[in-house]
Each structure stands twice: as structure tokens, then as C-alpha cells.
From TrEMBL:
<dbReference type="GO" id="GO:0071424">
    <property type="term" value="F:rRNA (cytosine-N4-)-methyltransferase activity"/>
</dbReference>
<dbReference type="GO" id="GO:0070475">
    <property type="term" value="P:rRNA base methylation"/>
</dbReference>
<keyword id="KW-0489">Methyltransferase</keyword>
<dbReference type="InterPro" id="IPR023397">
    <property type="entry name" value="SAM-dep_MeTrfase_MraW_recog"/>
</dbReference>
<dbReference type="InterPro" id="IPR029063">
    <property type="entry name" value="SAM-dependent_MTases_sf"/>
</dbReference>
<dbReference type="Pfam" id="PF01795">
    <property type="entry name" value="Methyltransf_5"/>
</dbReference>
<protein>
    <recommendedName>
        <fullName>Methyltransferase-like protein 15 homolog</fullName>
    </recommendedName>
</protein>
<keyword id="KW-0808">Transferase</keyword>
<keyword id="KW-0949">S-adenosyl-L-methionine</keyword>
<comment type="similarity">
    <text>Belongs to the methyltransferase superfamily. RsmH family.</text>
</comment>
<dbReference type="InterPro" id="IPR002903">
    <property type="entry name" value="RsmH"/>
</dbReference>
Length: 325
């Protein structure tokens, strides 16, 4: 959704822009080209993406600052570059995996490409972090059930968790993407699923999503990343987010509406708060206040043309908001 990002980012030729999910650099390049003189800080936890950002730095001298790390690493990384609070004019998040991560079988993200069950967005940069194979080999059945149910929203989570545990004790721990996909296909042998374009969808899709989110601690990182965006954006700066599933979008939506407690999102929407409780005016103001003003009443969706040319964009939801306090 490059065009939608450029339309809502609110930059000019002297702007400071922070791309929190650099990936292959598509959004960053479009900003650099449209706003000559702007400067872009490029964050990514993937060493491959970081190297691409370093290469881009030579193409756009003094306009690109590559940063290697997670969202939660940002304060330390920015401090080393002299960037302080209220520094940026716009911040972009394009959540989820990048296409290059899906396309490389050795990363373990894709069902269609055989490779080791890795799924670490950091790659081997942090070798002590567990892989998806480690999780499947060591987690208790109930923990696997919770991972599949909460992060994958998988209706058959209990049945699949039981099969994973049985497989590792009766046969061998799952090591490859094909082994996991084949196991789930056997468990859900009579299942038939489709995606949003009514195309056939593999029955293991939600399990792969759940493992990826858990291995990379994605939801906590997203929550913290939005908090950091509020800190580093100037008043009037723009926040742009692109989400690909409901768990990501829920976090963003709760932040923008101010439905937060102790810097974490509330599970229930504001309309389901207990009306039988009495609160003073100051408390009510605190509960309903937000640092953000949405630019659009509803989320922006990709055009039919973009979905046709790039089917991976079919689930994308773009939200744009202005920091107001």
C-alpha cells in the first residue's frame, strides 16, 4: 500500500521519517524519492534487511540511517545517533513477515517451501533464542494449545497440540516445515479452508502464524513499539500502521482509541466497560483520553488492482493517526 502510505504520511522535503519495519525497503525508497531532502531511519531486526538498508545508504548518502534491532531496542539505537523524543515527523509500521522472509525456505516461515522450523526474524543474530522447532519439542501440551488458540485463533488447537506431543514421543520431534504441515494435514484430513480470495488455504496456515508470533514475541513488541512511536513523534506527527491479522490490528486500534491500562491494551472495547461502576470526572477523562487522532473513520484497504497484482496484500489494513498530545 505504498500510495496510501505516501498520501497519509504528511512529510515534506525536510522531514525526519522512521521506518520501523524496513524489510526490503519498498516504503523507504518511495519516501526518499518523493521527498528529496528527507532523512529516513530504517529499523529492522533481520540482519538481511539491515544489510539492504546499509546498501541503500550508499545510494542515498546522508539520508539513510540503518538500525539493527527489535522495536524494544529502539531507544538505545536512537540514543547512539543523537535522536531524542519528539524527533520524527512520521513513523511507519508494516507488521508481519516481509516477502523475502517468506520466499526463503531456509527461514522456516513458509508452508510451501521446505526448510528447518526456524521462524526467528532475527535469524542467527541471537542464537540463544528458541526456534519454532525448539518450542514444538519442549512445550507442554497445554502451552501448545494456548499458543495455537490465542496467536493462531485455531479452532482445532487442542487436537493439533495433542498430535504434536504424540508425534515427538512416538516418532521424533518435528524439525522441518514439511513435517509440521504434513502432520496437521493428517490431523485435519477432512478440513477444507479458503483465504479471503476464496483460494485454497493450507490447514496449517494458522499454526505457522501462531508459532511465528510466539517465537518473535510479536504482540508485546507491537504494543511497545506503538508506545515508543508516541514518545518519538513530534506533536502533529503521523503514525501509519499496516496490519495483516486481527491480533495486530486490535493492538493498534486500542492505542489509537485510548483503551489502555498501565501501557497495555484492554481486552474489551470501551462500550463494554461496566456501567454500574461510578467514576469521578477526572477518572473518566483519563480512561477515554488518547494521544492520537485518527485520520480516517475506518481502516484503509488495498485496491482491487493491488490485491490482483500482489495477493499477499489481501489482508492488509492501514490506519493513520496524528499525535495530538
Amino acid at each position: 500500500m505504498k500510495e496510501e502510505v505516501l498520501e497519509n504520511v504528511g512529510l515534506n522535503n525536510d522531514s525526519m521519517f522512521l521506518d520501523m519495519t524496513f524489510g526490503a525497503g519498498g516504503h523507504t525508497k518511495s519516501v526518499l524519492d518523493k521527498f528529496p531532502g528527507s532523512k529516513v531511519y530504517c529499523l529492522d531486526r533481520d540482519p538481511v534487511a539491515y544489510q539492504l538498508a546499509c546498501d541503500l545508504e550508499t545510494e542515498y548518502p546522508a539520508r539513510v540511517v540503518p538500525l539493527l534491532g527489535k522495536f524494544s531496542d529502539l531507544p538505545v539505537l536512537l540514543k547512539s545517533h543523537g535522536a531524542k523524543q519528539n524527533y520524527f515527523d512520521a513513523i511507519l509500521f508494516d507488521f508481519g513477515c516481509s516477502s523475502m522472509q517468506f520466499d526463503e525456505g531456509g527461514r522456516g516461515f513458509s508452508i510451501s517451501k521446505e526448510g528447518p522450523l526456524d521462524m526467528r526474524m532475527d535469524g542467527n543474530r541471537l542464537p540463544q533464542n528458541p526456534t519454532a522447532a525448539d518450542v514444538l519439542a519442549t512445550a507442554e501440551e497445554h502451552d501448545l494449545y494456548k499458543i495455537f488458540k490465542v496467536y493462531g485463533e485455531e479452532k482445532k488447537a487442542k487436537k493439533i497440540a495433542r498430535a504434536v506431543v504424540e508425534a515427538r514421543y512416538l516418532f521424533t520431534p518435528l524439525q522441518t516445515t514439511k513435517e509440521l504441515a504434513d502432520l496437521i494435514s493428517c490431523v485435519l484430513v477432512n478440513e477444507s479452508r479458503t483465504d479471503k480470495l476464496d483460494r485454497h488455504a493450507h490447514v496449517a496456515t494458522k499454526i505457522f502464524q501462531a508459532l511465528r508470533i510466539f517465537v518473535n514475541n510479536e504482540l508485546n513488541e507491537i504494543n511497545y513499539g506503538i508506545l515508543l512511536a508516541q514518545r518519538y513523534l513530534r506533536i502533529g506527527g503521523r503514525l501509519i500502521t499496516i496490519c495483516f491479522h486481527s491480533l495486530e490490528d486490535l493492538i493498534v486500534k486500542r492505542h489509537i482509541t485510548g483503551n489502555m491500562t498501565d501501557n497495555s491494551i484492554n481486552v474489551l472495547p470501551l462500550q463494554y466497560v461496566d456501567n454500574g461502576l461510578w467514576h469521578d470526572q477526572e477518572s473518566i477523562k483519563e480512561f477515554t483520553s488518547s494521544y492520537w487522532q485518527p485520520l480516517h473513520k475506518h481502516v484503509l484497504l488495498p485496491s482491487d488492482y493491488e490485491v490482483e497484482t500482489n495477493p499477499r496484500s489481501r489482508s492488509a489494513k492501514l490506519r493513520a493517526a496524528v499525535r495530538v498530545s
